[in-house]
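Minutes, project check-in
Item: structure for the 297-residue chain
Input as provided by the requester:
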Amino acid sequence: MTSDRATTLPRGVNPAGNPPLATALDLAAANVPVLPLHRGKVPFGNCPACAKNVCGGRPNMKTPGPCACPAPCHAWAAATIGPSVLTSPQWASAWRTAAAVAYHPGGAGVTVVDLDDAAAIAWARATLPATRTVATTRGEHWIYQGAMQSVNAVRPGVDIKSLMSYARWLGPGTGTTAALPAAVRALAVKEAPTTRSATQTHTAPFAGQNGACPHRTPVYLDRGIAMAVQRITDADSAVHATVYRAFLAVLSRHGRCGCLTETHVMRLFTAAQAKGESVRHCTDAWTNARTALGLSA
């Protein structure tokens, strides 16, 4: 993974005449974190030590950074800009059979609005500002400068791919990359799953846990998020550590029952970035907290 200082995706990389590894190395040289894809546009399976995610997601993560495995494990978390990693023996077999190259949009500092069909494209043209456009098999990728949380199915035929996600590299596209508009961020907030009704009592146990869901009302969850945001906002020093501890506290209490939404996570990331944290640091802190608690990646 790279920092969020990359200013735009490169225009000089085109996969048409290049084998996947050559394309990947060109993208990595432009600070775009990449990984190989199998046929069917899916990442390669985890290494034997991480088969079936028995490692908890991203193993041995004691410091911020990409997946610690020598092989291309854990989907988007495997994305790297390191040429020594990309050309290592552990990655060689993946590149020999790779059908395509993917990249981590959030790690490159961009957001991809994935439009899956003609109706979605028509909606985007009527709703969103023009930006760089890349043709896909059935639709288009609209690429904006700026990162945010990824959200699937925000409306029919539309996904948002940025942090903790991957997108297939299909070429440089056409047009000028515009800044990530408020309309896309608002769409994600508006369409993300909401917390349950305040009148509902939660008695179902956690999946794989013995305790009951602690969210007697949405107010309880919202208060926990507000307290974590305030803790981050009040930090005068050790901001990295404070952000991590705040994320850890939220996930330890609210991370196992499925009530956390993209809206909640965005509030936490926004507070951290207001204190000077980069998108990368936020993403790494969140993933490391999940790993520490044994939650899936």
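Outcome recorded: The beta strands are 34-37, 100-103, 110-115, 132-135, 140-145, 151-155, 158-161, 167-168, 178-179.
No further action items on this chain.
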